[in-house]
Amino acid sequence: MKKVSFFSLIFLFIISCSEMETVIDLEIPTHEPVLVLNGVLDTDSSIKVSVSHSSGAFDNANPSFIRDADVLLFENDIFVDTLVTNLDELQTIYINDENYNSIPLPMYYYKSDFIPKSEKTYKIEVNHPDYNSVNATTFIEKGLNIYDLSIDSLSNVEKINFTFSFDDNANKQNYYRLKLFASCEKDDDYWGYGGYGGYGGGGEPGYGKFRGVVEMQSNDPSFPQTEFIPENGYTFIGEQVIFSDALFNGQKKTISVDVETYFKLNDCDTISFEFSTFSEDTYSYFSSLGEHRDKGELGIFGGEVIPVYSNVYNGLGVLISVNSQQFFVKPTQ
Q: How many CB atoms lie within 10 A of CB 39?
């Protein structure tokens, strides 16, 4: 009888606890908007940056482009130019509301005709009477010499192998990105109506066409592992790869990638690699962005969200730099 009473008391205690509720009132401070600066500096193009303002997590207003800011450019701390608003080039950004509806946000650029140079430090400073001034700095790395480029289209009828080498600088930590582009056509009925549609491709009846970024496959240990269980024996599969010299600092590095032969080599009139050197802030941005996306949309109480790297002082956003070099496999240049 004592045992029955004891367990009854436990049962009543559990029921009582399940009916208890705790309500906590949270005082959320008013969000103070700050300037948001975003831009990518490249040695192949003039400078463009976007300037907007931030919005709080519980604000009804969305971020919007700011048209009347003073945007100043400095090279090695020496003033170079004032960027001007370019309303002819629209960039539409999409965000999701609380119901996951896609909302378009029109954004524009501040532009300068100045072409940035390698091995220079650039600073963008933004001033506006309604906000605190912000600035961001980035360094453009030196380009690399690519050599020993070879193509193997005979060893495997289903794949083409591309191999090339470069010498890594031993005096600093280096970061790289690799992409492969192709423009190919296949004039027969193999592809059927509509052709091969992928990566910007498309087609016509009895006509295959492909133009855009090509998916690469590799087992290079310096590449991040994208396949937990390697697919077809490859640890990396993707349209671009970002990696560091942690495993080959100061050494000759040979890169080997395979491409599935949707088209034969003779079907392509253009094949080129884009090999880019990154600054440390650029690598930090892309790495944190990848981790942030991998976490998914967790929601406000869903867990810890990985923050995206920002180097904008007193504000938000990022200013990064890329030194991109394009070398052609076909046509020979």
A: 23
Rounded to 5°, the CA angle 41-45-46 comes to: 75
Residues 17-76: tens digit of each pLDDT: 545 566 665 566 666 889 999 999 999 899 999 999 887 655 566 778 899 999 999 999
Torsion of CA 115, 92, 316, 296, to 10 degrees: -120
Model pLDDT for residues 260-296, shown as the tens digit of each residue: 877 777 788 888 889 999 888 888 888 877 676 665 5
Q: Tell me how far apart the alpha carbons of residues 77 and 86 are, in angstroms, rounded to a whole number.
A: 25
Rounded Cα–Cα distance for residues 154 and 145 (Å): 27
Contact between 34 and 133 under an 8 Å Cβ cutoff? The reply is no
**Rounded Cα distance, 51 and 71, in Å:** 9
**Which candidate, 151, 169, 172, 176, places its Cα nearest to that of 256?**
151
Q: Which residues of the chain have pLDDT under 50?
A: 1-15, 18, 189-206, 298-303, 333
Residue 276 CB partners (closer than 8 Å, separation 6+):
176, 177, 178, 322, 323, 324, 325
Of residues 198, 333, 308, the one with CA closest to residue 262: 198
Single-letter code of the amino acid located at 296: G
- How many angstroms separate the first and last alpha carbons of the chain? 95
- The tally of CA atoms less than 13 A away on the side-chain side of residue 268 is 24
Under 8 Å between Cβ of 293 and 306: no
